[in-house]
Amino acid sequence: MNITAIIAFLIVFGLLVGFHEFGHFIVAKKSGVLVREFAIGMGPKILSWYKNQTAYTIRLLPVGGYVRMASEMEKDELEAGQRFRLVLNQAGEVESMDERVDQDGPGFFFQVDSADLVHDMTMTGYRQDEENLQTLTVAQTAIKTDQEGITTRIAPASTWVESAPVWKRLLINFAGPAMNFILAILAAGILSFALPSVHFNEPIIGQVVKSEPAAQAGIQPGDKILAVNGQSVQSFTDFANEVTKKADQSLQLKISRSGKTLNKTVTPELIEVSGQKQIRIGVGVKSYRDPLSRIKFSLLNTGTWFTQVGNGIKDLFVGGFSINKLGGPVMLAKTTAQASHQGFVTVLALLGLLSVNLGLINLLPIPPLDGGKIFLDLIEGIFRRPAPAWLATTLTGAGTALLVVLMILVTIKDLGQ
């Protein structure tokens, strides 16, 4: 894989994951849920920074990403004996807690005896060089830095995702796939304006080559092909298929021109181009360059991607499940590398298709996918109470195990191809 292919893969991967996670991120923020970390990639951290109460990280393995929201499942709990370097604000509240006590920095050392960072927002312990227990108030917006140097904000119960109303959680979980669909529309839009022209596969003649069979038969630009040898055609592809069947044989065309129906006879010619035999009559499909046509083309293109992916997902379950129907990060890298050799337009088309694929796959009702979370939220909304904790935990655990096994098997399969 050359440097161009690597760059193309990183851009495509970054956009797919970045848009998806940004959807969760921005809706969670607007819903009052604390986003503790926004990560692109998985595994060891290679870059991080902290801004506006969120840690942003770039991680080593390009196999996904995540938005880590404040949650009851991840309470800020401190153990007795833990040591921090604390910094107080002007009100005397703890505003910074740093686990890296072996490094120089501002503040003072504090050894924890007990703490409540969920409701009371206090921590009790021993200040450096003092023997008496002290209880300190922790600011609602206090930050904590772990041993890896990743900074996150302390999360009281009011900032947990579980504290948000059901309808807000539904929006948060749907926002990721929705952003993938938006990315696909953007990719289709850029693609439509990047092309010299667009066409809609209409059975309408756009160009007629001089001295070729069609011109000799009197075919003109704007003619609409209604039938070939009595066989009705619905698209330019239908028309082309009928032409390629009849080398050196006359074709009877029924055309529409300015509201009139005409009959034309044309004989395709067999020629050789670069060693390949071709049957042609010297016409091209009608194309468009105006902005409205390009917008229409982008919407139709997006719809085609949805149809392709939807049929693929349907075939995955209805046509018999097979690991060979799945692709993982390795397949993504290979496919992007191939597309990069064909140019910017091909990469754009691949980005749009993959974005629709990521969005629809994530809507499958399988925890921990977004669709699985939406399913559990809907249960809570319908029955006015959360699904039993054991059920949610069991479904999420089983779904996670299934996805991990599938990822391993798909990766092995992709590496072997």
From TrEMBL:
<feature type="transmembrane region" description="Helical">
    <location>
        <begin position="387"/>
        <end position="412"/>
    </location>
</feature>
<keyword id="KW-0482">Metalloprotease</keyword>
<protein>
    <recommendedName>
        <fullName>Zinc metalloprotease</fullName>
        <ecNumber>3.4.24.-</ecNumber>
    </recommendedName>
</protein>
<dbReference type="InterPro" id="IPR041489">
    <property type="entry name" value="PDZ_6"/>
</dbReference>
<feature type="transmembrane region" description="Helical">
    <location>
        <begin position="344"/>
        <end position="366"/>
    </location>
</feature>
<feature type="transmembrane region" description="Helical">
    <location>
        <begin position="6"/>
        <end position="27"/>
    </location>
</feature>
<dbReference type="InterPro" id="IPR001478">
    <property type="entry name" value="PDZ"/>
</dbReference>
<comment type="similarity">
    <text>Belongs to the peptidase M50B family.</text>
</comment>
<dbReference type="InterPro" id="IPR036034">
    <property type="entry name" value="PDZ_sf"/>
</dbReference>
<keyword id="KW-0479">Metal-binding</keyword>
<feature type="domain" description="PDZ">
    <location>
        <begin position="204"/>
        <end position="259"/>
    </location>
</feature>
<keyword id="KW-0378">Hydrolase</keyword>
<keyword id="KW-0812">Transmembrane</keyword>
<keyword id="KW-0862">Zinc</keyword>
<keyword id="KW-1133">Transmembrane helix</keyword>
<dbReference type="InterPro" id="IPR004387">
    <property type="entry name" value="Pept_M50_Zn"/>
</dbReference>
<feature type="transmembrane region" description="Helical">
    <location>
        <begin position="170"/>
        <end position="195"/>
    </location>
</feature>
<keyword id="KW-0472">Membrane</keyword>
<dbReference type="Pfam" id="PF02163">
    <property type="entry name" value="Peptidase_M50"/>
</dbReference>
<keyword id="KW-0645">Protease</keyword>
<dbReference type="InterPro" id="IPR008915">
    <property type="entry name" value="Peptidase_M50"/>
</dbReference>
<dbReference type="Pfam" id="PF17820">
    <property type="entry name" value="PDZ_6"/>
</dbReference>
